Amino acid sequence: MAQNLIDLFSALGVRQPEDPPEPVLSSFDVKGIAQYVKDKDVKDVVVMLGAGASVAAGIPDFRSPGTGLYDNLQKYDLPSPQHIFSIDYLEERPEAFFTLARELWPGKYCATTAHVFLKLLHDKNMLRRCYTQNIDGLEGLAGLPSEKYIAAHGNFDNAGCIKCGKEFSPQFVKMHVMDSLVPRCDSCEGVVKPGIVFFGESMPNRFLRGITQDFPACDLLLIIGTSLAVEPFASSCMRVDKAVPRVLINNEQVGLSHGLCFEGEAQYRDVFLGGDLQHNCLQIAEALGFKDELLRLKKKHDSAFLATNAEEHAAEAMHKLKAVEDAPDSTATDTAASASIASSANAVSNATGGAASANVATPTEKVPVSNATDTAASADAESPAKTVSNATDTATSPKVLSPKGEGSEATLSPS
Description:
This protein is of the alpha/beta class. The chain is about 40% helix and about 10% strand. A six-stranded parallel beta sheet has the order 3-2-1-7-8-9, sandwiched between helices. A three-stranded antiparallel beta sheet has the order 5-4-6.
């Protein structure tokens, strides 16, 4: 009788429910991930990186209520937050985007533990590729070779005119942006935009090619700090083989519409690690046996960043000092400004020597209290670099054109 029903359902095209696959992990936690890596000799890790990985550096993500970038764009008087990445709006009122770009320009923020963790995976010959949604360039700053990461939404590494397509160097755009000017094409007067993908623009060819090659070859997928809300990036997590574990390291569970499953009998390969993202990356490193290496690499990176950052601030301050001194009509105000800039430049320059040896954390990265093991390689979030940077910025930050054309400081607070 039972067989007759099975035959009938089969003839009608009704498929029998399949038994859930056997779990590919010994446990759905850090320990299970580490055991899988060791048992399978994992060598082709693919990482999907989102804005959550950079929040600890002081860069806000996009969608967190209250603190996200989209919730903090009211000062630009936009029709909607997404308009700041609209080509049409860029042509109409470019000041809004370039004021934001001035704040987000690479070099102002230090790579986080999560970024340095990716560099360590590369050093261990375990990383196949990192696909990042971020435009902050912290992957490269952490030391990851350019061939090892793909900026799905572009970054500041190139630039071009949005009208005629003429290419420009990133330095050309940076020079204008830092002087609070809109970079324009010398051929057609069109706006020159960094290579960031705006809404409606095509994804980079390297991304479109890469996902067809890297994801099928992946033997472990790490999804770090992304809401998986933007296509075609989000659905890339479905491209890995069905036997490949997918680990979501994020504040909240996402990706359920893309087949990720974190509970019940249907869970057989997906792992959710909630809570502090940086701490979770450190925990994975510890379970794999190279936590100490990660801490040493992070400390080395922080020291190099502090030294470089201080030198750049000193050079910028001296450049502005020279501009003030060369002005034909030097007033008492100019003299006071000159003295203030010189003082800041000297303070930064003097701090440079000590910065390189300082045993501190990322200038803005906050280490969770529960993560006591980080204490040896970390200090208070208010580091010398932040103090030096603030001293320089206070004296030298020029007024910039707001979207309404008024003078305002170019700042973007994550809170």
